[in-house]
Amino acid sequence: MPCPSINSSEAAGCNSGHRTMHCGRWRIVQHSLAGLVIVFLLHGIANAQQISAEQSKFFESKIRPVLIRECYSCHSQQAGQQKGGLRLDTKVRMETGGDSGPAIVPGNLHESWLWNAINYEDYRMPPDKPLPDQVIADFRDWIEMGAPDPRQSEIEAVQSTVTAADIKQGRKFWSFTKPKRSVIPEVTDSEWTRNPVDNFISRKHQDKNLTPADDADPNSLLRRLSFDLIGLPPDSQQLSRFLEDWASDPDRAVETAANEMLARPQFGERWGRHWLDVVRYAESSGFEVNTTFPNAWRYRDYVIDSFNGDKPYDEFIREQIAGDLLPAKTDEEWAEQLIATGFLAIGPKSLTERNARQFKLDMVDDQIDATTRVVLGVSGACARCHDHKFDPIQQQDYYAIAGIFESMSTHYGTINSATNRRPSNQLILPISDPNPFDEPLSKQMLAELHSQLAEKKQVMQDLQRARRERRQSDNSGRDLQRNFASLARTTVQIASIEAKINSVDHSGSPVSFCIGVQESDRPTNARLLVRGEFDQPAEVIERGFVQVLSRRPARIKPDSSGRRQLAEWMTDRNNPLTARVMVNRIWQHVFGTGIVQTPEDFGASGHRPTHPELLDYLAVEFMANDWSVKQLVRHLVTSRTYRMSTAYDSQNYEKDPENLFLWRADSQQLDAESLRDAMLFVSGQIELERPRASMVARAGSTVVRDGRLPSFQANGSNGSMSMMDRQRPSRGMDRGRNVKVYDIDTMNSYRSIYLPIVRDNLPQALEVFDFAEPAMIVGVRETSNTPAQGLYLLNNEFVMSQCDRMAARLMTEAEDTDDRIRLAFRLAYGRDAKPEEFAAAEKFYEDYEVSDNFRQRRKSVEQKKLASLSQAILVSAEFRHTN
């Protein structure tokens, strides 16, 4: 069926060239504030855009003379003046702008600094007296028609230091060549191996004269397997089954346990968190004005569901880069793909940035950095200011990709406020799946809001009329400043009212939103910037990919951004990096260290692989098995290599002190989430059902102040983001009506992945234990052992509470002290207490003294003793490690 083109005001589902299988209906949320609709900074298209004779005549007769007469004396090369970094004597310089942003944004009055200035809003240009009304009207017509400008640019091309010969030679680098199926090596100890992974590892053992460690004991192995796959310790039933299976067939025991864990929903929560580390997931913008992203949780859940559903990794990547452009059979599938593009929208944002052009460039830089480092394992963003220092990547390559991302709009969804200079809208989903904390509005409430809105808009019109009158006669600026303050207050009030109105549909029911990206109606090429500075534009660069990784030029149609082609190029089986990078990440999370120890740098400055043939073998198998993450994880954990103990061997240590060649298993410390979740698990308090939405969604769209989220406000989750001409999707389903939602009093029972991740204000339970910095791409977390961690485990209210509840569980599930001590060890360590441990615990219990004050306050001295014993167990090194 035919589909109309997407634009910011019509209810369009897609472009016919982008969505051939299905077309739903949706709306892009639009700013109400003075018509602030996200529009691309369409710079550098003068040569590509055909200017008609009529348009050229209009510019030459009505626009250029005014610029020469009123502006060139302060803003031109000929006059030797460019106040505020602004020049107006060429098209490129006008659209590049100065310190305050682009002077002209074709087609968009309110993003054009020059329009603001000639209307005496934030600026007064010309400063002596305002332009005649007819001249101002001419500028309006000119900008709205696309600002056609026949003036030629003096810009010259920048010569790259990376030559064609460098690129050709660079394609021979180990990681820039296509993975090839490796021959499985022959080994002398064939009885030790269980699958091809072991052959590659054993061959290295032979070459390095290393002796592999014995198998880990079954209790330790199950604990390791459970934490690696689901991030939780095994329960007593799992342990009993595993020990029984192990006694008869260790290989089958491991395979059976692995299959059971891979099928559990906790697998997606564990492995989804690994992905959230590298995509810098958070629920707020960070930086100076830390504004919430109230619908970021949808992307989090998308990631979890993708790992649980074993979505092919190539599809997973395509959806995150170009999900809005992919075909979809149903509205539900389309909604999922829109949510996936949150990958490009979720990065940190400096919302106080005054210059719109600078803000856009920085956002695109973040998108390029995330896309290239996360998917390809190379840093494309290093070429923003100059050719790459280490790899044969030209600065032109960076701007070829920048053109792709500049040809889309990013909808991250933040409120408009006095401090937020870069508010954004969100996307409306084509299904009914609202934030559970958004409340409906009655017809009476809607009517009242519309009445208030009309009143405020009339006030706004009066203030604007007074401003126009005062600019004619008052140069002191005092009245204009008071007028501007009133305008600012009224603007925020209008935005707040419109936010409430537009958070619901015409019947008053909440609308479903997500963050993500959309294709521009007018794709454009980017202009190379000398040293990455927006005010030093050079030649226009055609949209494309990284040359050293591409065997043939990109073929991007003029009316397409090239984003879908980028996604398909990245996930093509001939791409040398994508499969290798993900296989390496999976290996790292199974064995503790990657085959390449720099997971975001497979280039010349990164580490070389310790087992290159094994890496290629796994990459080829990964693609052959339909890019299945679960299949690869299963393959790795059922290897004999995975089963080795952590036993120390002095001779092996002398030959390989870093254990690069895996002669034993590395002892791994629990990460922040696993430690917290394990405490909840052993205390019996963990809530394994996924909660609906997020605590940030409950707080709504707001600014985080002093590390606190304001209490939830009805209909506040969409802030000042408003919609125009919107319509409900034609079909969809109501989801999540009967699922649990966040409650402030009970949130501590949910798994740690569902804690609010607010940039610069992380939960203490995560931050103190080396949680991934959400403003950065974190492929490998730091591991530390600090006094702050010890103090947290000894004194924190959450830890104390779990110890009390563990004690209550011990009293309920065991009848006497001895059995309670035994049960405590089995719950915490997944094994029975050793005789000396049992004796020490029993003595601790007997010698523990309870004060008279406590005896008067508490009924159960027994529980107090058990709580202290539980804390001693939970703060131990063994509890904090998988081995």
Strand content: under 5%
Distance between the termini: 58 Å
Helical content band: 40-55%
- Quaternary state reads single chain
- Count of runs of 4 or more consecutive helical residues: 33
Question: Which sheet architecture does the biggest sheet show?
Answer: 2 strands, antiparallel
Shape: globular
Poorly predicted tracts of residues: 1-49, 711-739, 742-746
**Rg value:** 31 Å
Structural class: mainly alpha
**Mean pLDDT over the full residue set:** 85
Q: Tell me the strand order in the biggest sheet.
A: 1-10
According to DSSP, the number of beta strands is: 10
State the gist of this model:
The protein is mainly alpha-helical and 883 residues long. It is built from 33 helices and ten strands.
Please explain how this structure is put together.
This protein is mainly α. Strand 8 and strand 9 form a beta hairpin. Helix 1 packs across helix 4 (133-144) and helix 29 packs across helix 30. The longest helix has 31 residues, at 443-473. The chain starts with 29 loop residues before the first strand and ends in a 9-residue tail after the last helix.
Q: Which structural traits does this protein have?
A:
883 residues; mainly alpha; two-stranded antiparallel ribbon; 33 helices; 10 strands
What is the strand and helix layout of this fold?
Blueprint: E1 30-31, H1 53-70, E2 75-76, E3 81-82, H2 91-96, H3 113-118, H4 133-144, H5 164-170, H6 196-208, H7 218-230, H8 236-248, H9 250-262, H10 265-278, H11 297-308, H12 313-322, H13 331-340, H14 342-345, H15 356-376, H16 395-406, E4 408-411, E5 427-428, H17 443-473, H18 478-502, E6 513-514, E7 516-519, E8 526-529, E9 537-541, H19 563-570, H20 578-591, H21 612-624, H22 629-637, H23 640-643, H24 650-655, H25 672-683, H26 695-699, E10 721-722, H27 764-767, H28 787-795, H29 797-813, H30 817-829, H31 835-847, H32 852-857, H33 861-874
Antiparallel strand pairs: 1-10, 2-3, 4-7, 5-6, 8-9
Helix pairs in contact: 1-4, 7-9, 8-9, 10-11, 12-13, 12-19, 15-16, 17-18, 20-21, 20-22, 25-29, 29-30, 29-33, 30-33
